[in-house]
Amino acid sequence: MKNKSNFLMLSALLGGLLFNFLFWEERLALNLLIYSVYLLMITFVNPEVIKSSKLKIYGLAHLSAAVLVVINNSDLTLASYYISMLLFIGIAHNQQIRTVFVAILAAFLQLATVPFNAIKNLTEVRIGNFNLKPFFKLLKYVLIPFVIVTVFTCLYSAASTVFAHYVELVLNSIANSLGDVINFFFKDLNFGRVAFFCFGLLVTSGILLTFFDKSLQNAELKCKEQLLRVRRKINQRTAWFEFLQIFTGGLLYRKLALKTEYIIGLISFGSLNLLLLFLNAIDITTLWFGYKPSGNFSSELHQGTNSLIFSIVMAMFVITYFFRGNLNFFSKSKTLRFLAFAWMIQNCILIISVLIRDGYYIEFHGLTHKRIGVLVFAILCIIGLATVYIKVAKQKTLFYLFKTNGNIWFILLLVFSTINWDVLIVKYNLNHTDSVSIDPDYLISLSEKTLPLLDKNRAKINQSATNESETRTRIYANPQDILMNKLDQRIDFFKERYEKASWVSWNLQDWNTAEYFGLNGK
Protein backbone atom coordinates (compact mmCIF):
# COMPACT_ATOMS: atom_id res chain seq x y z
CA MET A 1 0.00 0.00 0.00
CA LYS A 2 2.77 2.44 0.88
CA ASN A 3 4.49 1.93 -2.50
CA LYS A 4 1.21 2.64 -4.31
CA SER A 5 0.61 5.83 -2.34
CA ASN A 6 4.18 7.04 -2.80
CA PHE A 7 3.94 6.36 -6.55
CA LEU A 8 0.64 8.22 -6.97
CA MET A 9 1.69 11.26 -4.94
CA LEU A 10 5.02 11.49 -6.78
CA SER A 11 3.21 11.11 -10.12
CA ALA A 12 0.77 13.89 -9.17
CA LEU A 13 3.67 16.17 -8.19
CA LEU A 14 5.55 15.49 -11.44
CA GLY A 15 2.29 15.97 -13.34
CA GLY A 16 1.84 19.39 -11.72
CA LEU A 17 5.36 20.40 -12.76
CA LEU A 18 4.74 19.11 -16.30
CA PHE A 19 1.42 20.98 -16.43
CA ASN A 20 3.20 24.18 -15.39
CA PHE A 21 5.89 23.74 -18.04
CA LEU A 22 3.54 22.81 -20.89
CA PHE A 23 0.66 25.25 -20.44
CA TRP A 24 1.99 28.41 -18.82
CA GLU A 25 1.19 31.24 -21.29
CA GLU A 26 0.95 28.72 -24.16
CA ARG A 27 -1.76 27.86 -26.69
CA LEU A 28 -3.44 24.46 -26.45
CA ALA A 29 -1.92 22.18 -29.08
CA LEU A 30 1.01 19.72 -28.84
CA ASN A 31 1.18 20.30 -25.08
CA LEU A 32 -2.22 18.63 -24.64
CA LEU A 33 -0.97 15.51 -26.42
CA ILE A 34 2.18 15.35 -24.25
CA TYR A 35 0.15 15.81 -21.07
CA SER A 36 -2.33 13.12 -22.12
CA VAL A 37 0.46 10.65 -22.92
CA TYR A 38 1.84 11.21 -19.43
CA LEU A 39 -1.57 10.65 -17.80
CA LEU A 40 -2.22 7.51 -19.84
CA MET A 41 1.19 6.10 -18.94
CA ILE A 42 0.70 6.70 -15.20
CA THR A 43 -2.85 5.31 -15.29
CA PHE A 44 -1.83 2.09 -17.03
CA VAL A 45 1.22 1.67 -14.76
CA ASN A 46 -0.89 2.25 -11.63
CA PRO A 47 -1.47 -1.21 -10.09
CA GLU A 48 -4.79 -0.08 -8.56
CA VAL A 49 -6.34 0.48 -12.02
CA ILE A 50 -7.79 -2.56 -13.80
CA LYS A 51 -6.53 -2.69 -17.40
CA SER A 52 -9.83 -3.73 -18.95
CA SER A 53 -10.73 -3.61 -22.64
CA LYS A 54 -13.17 -0.80 -21.89
CA LEU A 55 -10.40 1.30 -20.34
CA LYS A 56 -8.12 0.67 -23.31
CA ILE A 57 -10.85 1.74 -25.75
CA TYR A 58 -11.54 4.99 -23.89
CA GLY A 59 -7.81 5.57 -23.46
CA LEU A 60 -7.32 5.17 -27.22
CA ALA A 61 -10.29 7.48 -27.86
CA HIS A 62 -8.76 10.16 -25.64
CA LEU A 63 -5.37 9.78 -27.30
CA SER A 64 -7.06 10.13 -30.71
CA ALA A 65 -8.80 13.30 -29.52
CA ALA A 66 -5.44 14.71 -28.37
CA VAL A 67 -3.90 13.93 -31.77
CA LEU A 68 -6.84 15.64 -33.51
CA VAL A 69 -6.17 18.79 -31.46
CA VAL A 70 -2.65 18.85 -32.91
CA ILE A 71 -3.89 18.16 -36.45
CA ASN A 72 -7.04 20.31 -36.71
CA ASN A 73 -6.76 22.60 -33.65
CA SER A 74 -10.39 23.76 -33.54
CA ASP A 75 -12.94 24.42 -30.81
CA LEU A 76 -14.64 21.13 -31.70
CA THR A 77 -11.41 19.14 -31.26
CA LEU A 78 -10.87 20.83 -27.89
CA ALA A 79 -14.42 19.90 -26.86
CA SER A 80 -13.84 16.28 -27.90
CA TYR A 81 -10.52 16.33 -26.00
CA TYR A 82 -12.09 17.47 -22.73
CA ILE A 83 -15.10 15.16 -23.03
CA SER A 84 -12.90 12.16 -23.85
CA MET A 85 -10.66 13.02 -20.89
CA LEU A 86 -13.64 13.14 -18.53
CA LEU A 87 -14.85 9.79 -19.86
CA PHE A 88 -11.40 8.27 -19.43
CA ILE A 89 -11.16 9.56 -15.85
CA GLY A 90 -14.63 8.27 -14.99
CA ILE A 91 -14.05 4.83 -16.51
CA ALA A 92 -10.50 4.48 -15.11
CA HIS A 93 -11.70 4.79 -11.51
CA ASN A 94 -15.16 3.25 -11.97
CA GLN A 95 -14.73 0.33 -14.34
CA GLN A 96 -18.32 -0.90 -14.05
CA ILE A 97 -19.91 2.33 -15.29
CA ARG A 98 -21.83 1.73 -18.53
CA THR A 99 -23.03 5.13 -19.74
CA VAL A 100 -21.01 8.15 -20.85
CA PHE A 101 -23.23 10.50 -18.82
CA VAL A 102 -22.54 8.74 -15.51
CA ALA A 103 -18.85 8.47 -16.42
CA ILE A 104 -18.70 12.26 -16.87
CA LEU A 105 -20.50 12.78 -13.54
CA ALA A 106 -18.03 10.40 -11.87
CA ALA A 107 -15.13 12.36 -13.39
CA PHE A 108 -16.48 15.65 -12.02
CA LEU A 109 -16.90 14.00 -8.63
CA GLN A 110 -13.34 12.74 -8.91
CA LEU A 111 -12.01 16.24 -9.64
CA ALA A 112 -14.17 17.91 -6.98
CA THR A 113 -12.91 15.60 -4.21
CA VAL A 114 -9.19 16.21 -4.81
CA PRO A 115 -8.52 17.41 -1.20
CA PHE A 116 -10.12 14.29 0.32
CA ASN A 117 -8.30 11.97 -2.07
CA ALA A 118 -4.98 13.76 -1.49
CA ILE A 119 -5.30 13.60 2.30
CA LYS A 120 -6.23 9.92 2.15
CA ASN A 121 -3.20 9.16 -0.02
CA LEU A 122 -0.86 11.35 2.04
CA THR A 123 -1.78 9.45 5.21
CA GLU A 124 -0.52 6.28 3.52
CA VAL A 125 2.79 7.76 2.30
CA ARG A 126 5.85 6.20 3.95
CA ILE A 127 9.46 7.43 3.80
CA GLY A 128 11.41 4.90 5.84
CA ASN A 129 9.87 4.98 9.30
CA PHE A 130 8.41 8.44 8.75
CA ASN A 131 4.75 8.89 7.82
CA LEU A 132 2.27 11.76 7.75
CA LYS A 133 -0.66 9.99 9.39
CA PRO A 134 -0.12 11.48 12.90
CA PHE A 135 0.06 14.96 11.39
CA PHE A 136 -3.26 14.59 9.58
CA LYS A 137 -4.82 13.05 12.68
CA LEU A 138 -3.81 16.20 14.55
CA LEU A 139 -4.91 18.42 11.66
CA LYS A 140 -8.54 17.27 11.84
CA TYR A 141 -8.77 18.72 15.36
CA VAL A 142 -7.86 22.11 13.90
CA LEU A 143 -9.45 21.92 10.44
CA ILE A 144 -13.05 21.15 11.44
CA PRO A 145 -13.24 23.93 14.09
CA PHE A 146 -11.59 26.31 11.60
CA VAL A 147 -14.27 25.58 8.97
CA ILE A 148 -17.07 26.01 11.54
CA VAL A 149 -15.62 29.31 12.82
CA THR A 150 -15.16 30.57 9.25
CA VAL A 151 -18.79 29.81 8.32
CA PHE A 152 -20.18 31.59 11.38
CA THR A 153 -17.80 34.52 10.92
CA CYS A 154 -19.24 35.02 7.44
CA LEU A 155 -22.79 34.83 8.80
CA TYR A 156 -22.09 37.32 11.60
CA SER A 157 -20.35 39.65 9.14
CA ALA A 158 -23.43 39.62 6.95
CA ALA A 159 -25.58 40.42 9.98
CA SER A 160 -23.47 43.29 11.37
CA THR A 161 -21.52 45.87 9.35
CA VAL A 162 -19.45 46.85 12.41
CA PHE A 163 -18.46 43.23 13.00
CA ALA A 164 -17.63 42.90 9.30
CA HIS A 165 -15.43 46.01 9.51
CA TYR A 166 -13.33 44.56 12.35
CA VAL A 167 -13.08 41.18 10.60
CA GLU A 168 -11.82 42.95 7.48
CA LEU A 169 -9.20 44.84 9.51
CA VAL A 170 -7.94 41.59 11.08
CA LEU A 171 -7.78 39.77 7.74
CA ASN A 172 -5.99 42.68 6.04
CA SER A 173 -3.46 42.78 8.86
CA ILE A 174 -2.80 39.04 8.58
CA ALA A 175 -2.56 39.26 4.78
CA ASN A 176 -0.09 42.19 4.94
CA SER A 177 2.08 40.38 7.50
CA LEU A 178 2.16 37.20 5.41
CA GLY A 179 2.89 39.26 2.30
CA ASP A 180 5.87 40.93 4.00
CA VAL A 181 7.29 37.59 5.13
CA ILE A 182 6.85 35.99 1.70
CA ASN A 183 8.35 39.00 -0.10
CA PHE A 184 11.33 38.92 2.25
CA PHE A 185 12.17 35.26 1.66
CA PHE A 186 10.92 34.89 -1.93
CA LYS A 187 11.46 38.32 -3.44
CA ASP A 188 11.83 37.13 -7.06
CA LEU A 189 9.11 34.48 -6.92
CA ASN A 190 6.41 34.62 -9.64
CA PHE A 191 3.23 34.07 -7.63
CA GLY A 192 1.14 33.77 -10.77
CA ARG A 193 3.19 30.82 -11.90
CA VAL A 194 3.15 29.28 -8.42
CA ALA A 195 -0.64 29.50 -8.42
CA PHE A 196 -0.69 27.95 -11.90
CA PHE A 197 1.48 25.08 -10.64
CA CYS A 198 -0.94 24.53 -7.75
CA PHE A 199 -3.81 24.45 -10.23
CA GLY A 200 -1.93 21.90 -12.37
CA LEU A 201 -1.21 19.83 -9.26
CA LEU A 202 -4.92 19.83 -8.37
CA VAL A 203 -5.96 18.82 -11.90
CA THR A 204 -3.37 16.03 -12.10
CA SER A 205 -4.24 14.79 -8.62
CA GLY A 206 -7.92 14.75 -9.52
CA ILE A 207 -7.17 12.63 -12.57
CA LEU A 208 -4.80 10.16 -10.94
CA LEU A 209 -6.02 9.79 -7.33
CA THR A 210 -9.04 7.50 -6.98
CA PHE A 211 -12.07 8.70 -5.04
CA PHE A 212 -12.86 6.00 -2.50
CA ASP A 213 -16.67 6.38 -2.64
CA LYS A 214 -18.29 4.23 -5.38
CA SER A 215 -21.91 5.23 -4.70
CA LEU A 216 -22.43 6.61 -8.22
CA GLN A 217 -21.16 3.42 -9.86
CA ASN A 218 -23.19 1.22 -7.52
CA ALA A 219 -26.36 3.22 -8.21
CA GLU A 220 -25.93 2.81 -11.97
CA LEU A 221 -25.38 -0.94 -11.60
CA LYS A 222 -28.98 -1.24 -10.41
CA CYS A 223 -30.26 0.14 -13.74
CA LYS A 224 -31.48 -2.46 -16.25
CA GLU A 225 -31.72 -2.29 -20.02
CA GLN A 226 -34.70 -4.63 -20.36
CA LEU A 227 -38.14 -3.62 -19.16
CA LEU A 228 -39.81 -5.92 -16.64
CA ARG A 229 -43.48 -5.93 -15.76
CA VAL A 230 -43.99 -4.51 -12.29
CA ARG A 231 -46.83 -5.97 -10.29
CA ARG A 232 -47.74 -3.68 -7.42
CA LYS A 233 -48.82 -5.36 -4.22
CA ILE A 234 -51.59 -3.55 -2.39
CA ASN A 235 -49.82 -3.98 0.95
CA GLN A 236 -46.60 -2.42 -0.38
CA ARG A 237 -47.41 1.30 -0.44
CA THR A 238 -44.91 4.12 -0.84
CA ALA A 239 -45.29 7.62 0.63
CA TRP A 240 -46.02 8.94 -2.88
CA PHE A 241 -48.73 6.26 -3.32
CA GLU A 242 -50.41 7.30 -0.05
CA PHE A 243 -50.25 10.99 -1.07
CA LEU A 244 -51.91 10.32 -4.43
CA GLN A 245 -54.61 8.25 -2.76
CA ILE A 246 -55.83 11.35 -0.91
CA PHE A 247 -56.74 13.00 -4.24
CA THR A 248 -57.65 9.94 -6.31
CA GLY A 249 -59.62 7.88 -3.81
CA GLY A 250 -59.91 4.27 -4.95
CA LEU A 251 -58.71 4.87 -8.53
CA LEU A 252 -55.25 3.60 -7.66
CA TYR A 253 -56.64 0.16 -6.86
CA ARG A 254 -58.60 -0.24 -10.04
CA LYS A 255 -57.32 -2.42 -12.87
CA LEU A 256 -58.74 0.05 -15.38
CA ALA A 257 -55.79 2.45 -14.87
CA LEU A 258 -53.69 0.72 -17.55
CA LYS A 259 -56.63 0.62 -19.94
CA THR A 260 -57.22 4.32 -19.33
CA GLU A 261 -53.64 5.11 -20.19
CA TYR A 262 -53.94 2.90 -23.28
CA ILE A 263 -57.05 4.77 -24.48
CA ILE A 264 -55.34 8.14 -23.84
CA GLY A 265 -52.36 6.88 -25.86
CA LEU A 266 -54.59 5.77 -28.74
CA ILE A 267 -56.32 9.15 -28.90
CA SER A 268 -53.04 11.04 -28.60
CA PHE A 269 -51.08 9.07 -31.21
CA GLY A 270 -54.07 8.94 -33.56
CA SER A 271 -54.53 12.72 -33.40
CA LEU A 272 -50.79 13.39 -33.70
CA ASN A 273 -50.53 11.12 -36.74
CA LEU A 274 -53.34 13.01 -38.50
CA LEU A 275 -51.81 16.36 -37.57
CA LEU A 276 -48.34 15.38 -38.78
CA LEU A 277 -49.77 13.76 -41.91
CA PHE A 278 -51.34 17.11 -42.82
CA LEU A 279 -48.04 18.96 -42.20
CA ASN A 280 -45.99 16.40 -44.16
CA ALA A 281 -48.45 16.59 -47.06
CA ILE A 282 -47.98 20.37 -47.17
CA ASP A 283 -44.15 20.04 -47.04
CA ILE A 284 -44.05 17.35 -49.73
CA THR A 285 -46.25 19.33 -52.14
CA THR A 286 -44.73 22.78 -51.50
CA LEU A 287 -41.15 22.10 -50.37
CA TRP A 288 -39.94 18.82 -51.81
CA PHE A 289 -40.83 19.52 -55.44
CA GLY A 290 -40.43 22.81 -57.29
CA TYR A 291 -39.74 25.04 -54.28
CA LYS A 292 -39.08 28.68 -55.16
CA PRO A 293 -37.92 31.12 -52.47
CA SER A 294 -40.08 34.19 -51.98
CA GLY A 295 -40.58 36.90 -49.40
CA ASN A 296 -38.46 36.68 -46.25
CA PHE A 297 -36.75 33.46 -47.27
CA SER A 298 -34.14 33.51 -44.48
CA SER A 299 -36.65 34.08 -41.67
CA GLU A 300 -39.03 31.47 -43.09
CA LEU A 301 -36.37 28.75 -43.18
CA HIS A 302 -34.96 29.65 -39.75
CA GLN A 303 -38.34 29.63 -38.01
CA GLY A 304 -39.50 26.47 -39.77
CA THR A 305 -36.31 24.55 -39.08
CA ASN A 306 -36.15 25.47 -35.38
CA SER A 307 -39.81 24.56 -34.82
CA LEU A 308 -39.50 21.21 -36.60
CA ILE A 309 -36.37 20.21 -34.68
CA PHE A 310 -38.10 21.03 -31.39
CA SER A 311 -41.18 19.01 -32.44
CA ILE A 312 -39.01 15.97 -33.28
CA VAL A 313 -37.34 16.08 -29.86
CA MET A 314 -40.74 16.41 -28.17
CA ALA A 315 -42.02 13.46 -30.22
CA MET A 316 -39.31 11.22 -28.77
CA PHE A 317 -40.22 12.35 -25.25
CA VAL A 318 -43.92 11.59 -25.81
CA ILE A 319 -43.18 8.09 -27.13
CA THR A 320 -40.83 7.25 -24.26
CA TYR A 321 -43.40 8.52 -21.77
CA PHE A 322 -46.22 6.26 -22.97
CA PHE A 323 -43.94 3.21 -23.31
CA ARG A 324 -42.11 3.69 -20.03
CA GLY A 325 -43.71 0.85 -18.06
CA ASN A 326 -46.47 -1.75 -17.99
CA LEU A 327 -48.17 -0.44 -21.14
CA ASN A 328 -45.45 -2.37 -23.03
CA PHE A 329 -46.95 -5.61 -21.70
CA PHE A 330 -50.62 -4.75 -22.22
CA SER A 331 -52.25 -7.52 -24.31
CA LYS A 332 -54.12 -5.06 -26.59
CA SER A 333 -51.24 -2.64 -27.19
CA LYS A 334 -50.57 -3.71 -30.83
CA THR A 335 -52.70 -0.88 -32.22
CA LEU A 336 -50.92 1.64 -29.98
CA ARG A 337 -47.53 0.32 -31.13
CA PHE A 338 -48.63 0.60 -34.76
CA LEU A 339 -49.66 4.23 -34.26
CA ALA A 340 -46.40 4.99 -32.43
CA PHE A 341 -44.34 3.41 -35.23
CA ALA A 342 -46.36 5.33 -37.84
CA TRP A 343 -45.64 8.56 -35.97
CA MET A 344 -41.91 7.69 -35.89
CA ILE A 345 -41.93 7.17 -39.67
CA GLN A 346 -43.73 10.47 -40.12
CA ASN A 347 -41.14 12.18 -37.92
CA CYS A 348 -38.43 10.73 -40.19
CA ILE A 349 -40.26 12.36 -43.12
CA LEU A 350 -40.26 15.56 -41.08
CA ILE A 351 -36.48 15.27 -40.68
CA ILE A 352 -36.18 14.97 -44.47
CA SER A 353 -38.10 18.26 -44.72
CA VAL A 354 -35.64 19.83 -42.26
CA LEU A 355 -32.72 18.58 -44.38
CA ILE A 356 -34.33 19.97 -47.57
CA ARG A 357 -34.87 23.34 -45.88
CA ASP A 358 -31.26 23.41 -44.75
CA GLY A 359 -30.14 22.31 -48.21
CA TYR A 360 -31.97 25.23 -49.81
CA TYR A 361 -30.41 27.57 -47.28
CA ILE A 362 -26.91 26.27 -48.13
CA GLU A 363 -27.69 26.45 -51.86
CA PHE A 364 -28.64 30.14 -51.71
CA HIS A 365 -26.52 31.45 -48.80
CA GLY A 366 -23.57 29.04 -48.51
CA LEU A 367 -22.19 26.99 -45.64
CA THR A 368 -21.98 28.21 -42.03
CA HIS A 369 -21.45 26.49 -38.71
CA LYS A 370 -25.15 26.84 -37.85
CA ARG A 371 -26.28 25.21 -41.08
CA ILE A 372 -23.83 22.36 -40.57
CA GLY A 373 -25.16 22.13 -37.01
CA VAL A 374 -28.68 21.63 -38.36
CA LEU A 375 -27.43 18.75 -40.53
CA VAL A 376 -25.68 17.16 -37.56
CA PHE A 377 -28.73 17.62 -35.34
CA ALA A 378 -30.94 16.01 -37.99
CA ILE A 379 -28.59 12.99 -38.02
CA LEU A 380 -28.82 12.79 -34.22
CA CYS A 381 -32.63 12.94 -34.44
CA ILE A 382 -32.66 10.03 -36.90
CA ILE A 383 -30.44 8.03 -34.56
CA GLY A 384 -32.64 9.00 -31.62
CA LEU A 385 -35.80 7.85 -33.42
CA ALA A 386 -34.11 4.57 -34.39
CA THR A 387 -33.17 3.85 -30.76
CA VAL A 388 -36.67 4.85 -29.60
CA TYR A 389 -38.08 2.35 -32.13
CA ILE A 390 -35.84 -0.39 -30.68
CA LYS A 391 -36.93 0.62 -27.17
CA VAL A 392 -40.61 0.21 -28.05
CA ALA A 393 -40.20 -2.89 -30.25
CA LYS A 394 -37.83 -4.72 -27.88
CA GLN A 395 -39.30 -3.37 -24.61
CA LYS A 396 -36.15 -1.59 -23.51
CA THR A 397 -35.76 0.86 -20.62
CA LEU A 398 -34.93 4.55 -20.59
CA PHE A 399 -31.47 3.55 -19.33
CA TYR A 400 -30.95 1.71 -22.63
CA LEU A 401 -31.68 4.95 -24.53
CA PHE A 402 -29.19 6.93 -22.44
CA LYS A 403 -26.51 4.28 -22.78
CA THR A 404 -26.89 3.70 -26.53
CA ASN A 405 -27.32 7.34 -27.56
CA GLY A 406 -24.50 8.49 -25.30
CA ASN A 407 -22.04 6.06 -26.90
CA ILE A 408 -23.18 7.00 -30.41
CA TRP A 409 -22.92 10.73 -29.69
CA PHE A 410 -19.37 10.31 -28.37
CA ILE A 411 -18.31 8.33 -31.44
CA LEU A 412 -19.85 10.95 -33.74
CA LEU A 413 -18.07 13.71 -31.80
CA LEU A 414 -14.72 12.07 -32.53
CA VAL A 415 -15.67 11.46 -36.18
CA PHE A 416 -16.78 15.06 -36.73
CA SER A 417 -13.58 16.28 -35.06
CA THR A 418 -11.57 14.75 -37.91
CA ILE A 419 -13.08 17.31 -40.33
CA ASN A 420 -11.55 20.76 -40.66
CA TRP A 421 -14.87 22.59 -40.70
CA ASP A 422 -13.60 26.17 -41.07
CA VAL A 423 -11.50 25.29 -44.11
CA LEU A 424 -14.40 23.27 -45.57
CA ILE A 425 -16.77 26.24 -45.16
CA VAL A 426 -14.38 28.70 -46.83
CA LYS A 427 -13.56 26.31 -49.68
CA TYR A 428 -17.22 25.57 -50.41
CA ASN A 429 -18.35 29.19 -50.31
CA LEU A 430 -15.48 30.54 -52.42
CA ASN A 431 -15.93 27.76 -54.97
CA HIS A 432 -19.62 28.69 -55.36
CA THR A 433 -19.45 32.48 -55.53
CA ASP A 434 -21.35 32.41 -58.83
CA SER A 435 -24.39 30.70 -57.33
CA VAL A 436 -24.12 31.49 -53.61
CA SER A 437 -24.62 34.85 -51.94
CA ILE A 438 -21.65 34.48 -49.59
CA ASP A 439 -21.04 36.51 -46.46
CA PRO A 440 -17.46 37.88 -46.64
CA ASP A 441 -17.60 39.26 -43.09
CA TYR A 442 -18.38 35.79 -41.78
CA LEU A 443 -15.60 34.15 -43.81
CA ILE A 444 -12.96 36.60 -42.59
CA SER A 445 -14.09 36.04 -38.99
CA LEU A 446 -13.25 32.32 -39.11
CA SER A 447 -10.12 30.81 -37.55
CA GLU A 448 -6.57 31.60 -38.66
CA LYS A 449 -6.23 28.28 -40.50
CA THR A 450 -8.39 29.81 -43.27
CA LEU A 451 -6.05 32.77 -43.87
CA PRO A 452 -4.16 31.16 -46.80
CA LEU A 453 -7.44 30.44 -48.62
CA LEU A 454 -8.74 33.93 -47.96
CA ASP A 455 -5.48 35.51 -49.11
CA LYS A 456 -5.54 33.49 -52.35
CA ASN A 457 -9.14 34.51 -53.10
CA ARG A 458 -9.06 38.25 -52.38
CA ALA A 459 -10.68 38.96 -55.75
CA LYS A 460 -13.71 36.77 -54.96
CA ILE A 461 -14.08 38.37 -51.54
CA ASN A 462 -13.99 41.83 -53.13
CA GLN A 463 -16.67 40.81 -55.62
CA SER A 464 -18.99 39.76 -52.79
CA ALA A 465 -18.20 42.79 -50.59
CA THR A 466 -21.38 44.61 -51.59
CA ASN A 467 -23.65 41.70 -50.60
CA GLU A 468 -26.23 42.45 -47.93
CA SER A 469 -25.05 39.64 -45.68
CA GLU A 470 -26.86 38.35 -42.60
CA THR A 471 -24.15 39.57 -40.22
CA ARG A 472 -23.65 42.98 -41.79
CA THR A 473 -25.92 45.62 -40.33
CA ARG A 474 -25.04 48.31 -42.85
CA ILE A 475 -23.15 48.71 -46.12
CA TYR A 476 -19.85 50.57 -45.76
CA ALA A 477 -18.79 53.33 -48.17
CA ASN A 478 -15.75 51.30 -49.31
CA PRO A 479 -16.55 47.69 -48.35
CA GLN A 480 -13.62 46.22 -50.33
CA ASP A 481 -11.08 48.35 -48.47
CA ILE A 482 -12.69 47.60 -45.11
CA LEU A 483 -12.59 43.84 -45.73
CA MET A 484 -9.02 43.80 -47.08
CA ASN A 485 -7.77 45.88 -44.15
CA LYS A 486 -9.45 43.50 -41.73
CA LEU A 487 -7.87 40.52 -43.51
CA ASP A 488 -4.42 42.16 -43.47
CA GLN A 489 -4.77 42.88 -39.75
CA ARG A 490 -5.60 39.23 -39.06
CA ILE A 491 -2.59 38.07 -41.11
CA ASP A 492 -0.27 40.48 -39.26
CA PHE A 493 -1.66 39.32 -35.91
CA PHE A 494 -1.05 35.68 -36.86
CA LYS A 495 2.55 36.39 -37.92
CA GLU A 496 3.26 38.19 -34.66
CA ARG A 497 1.68 35.41 -32.58
CA TYR A 498 3.37 32.60 -34.48
CA GLU A 499 6.86 34.07 -34.09
CA LYS A 500 6.37 34.28 -30.30
CA ALA A 501 4.95 30.74 -29.90
CA SER A 502 7.17 27.97 -28.50
CA TRP A 503 7.38 24.37 -29.65
CA VAL A 504 4.82 23.13 -27.11
CA SER A 505 2.15 25.23 -28.90
CA TRP A 506 2.89 23.63 -32.28
CA ASN A 507 -0.02 22.37 -34.35
CA LEU A 508 -0.34 21.36 -37.98
CA GLN A 509 -2.79 24.09 -39.00
CA ASP A 510 -0.59 26.91 -37.68
CA TRP A 511 2.42 25.32 -39.35
CA ASN A 512 0.60 25.13 -42.73
CA THR A 513 -0.52 28.75 -42.44
CA ALA A 514 3.01 29.85 -41.50
CA GLU A 515 4.41 27.84 -44.41
CA TYR A 516 2.11 29.70 -46.82
CA PHE A 517 3.27 33.10 -45.51
CA GLY A 518 6.94 32.03 -45.52
CA LEU A 519 7.46 32.12 -41.75
CA ASN A 520 8.93 28.64 -41.26
CA GLY A 521 12.19 29.41 -43.02
CA LYS A 522 13.03 32.35 -40.76
TrEMBL record:
Keywords: Membrane, Transmembrane, Transmembrane helix. InterPro entries: DUF4153 (IPR025291). Pfam families: DUF4153. It comes from the Bacteria. The keyword Transmembrane applies. The chain crosses the membrane at residues 7-24, 30-50, 62-91, 97-118, 138-159, 194-212, 262-291, 303-323, 335-356, 372-390, 410-430. This is Uncharacterized protein. It comes from Pedobacter paludis. The lineage of its organism: Bacteria, Pseudomonadati, Bacteroidota, Sphingobacteriia, Sphingobacteriales.
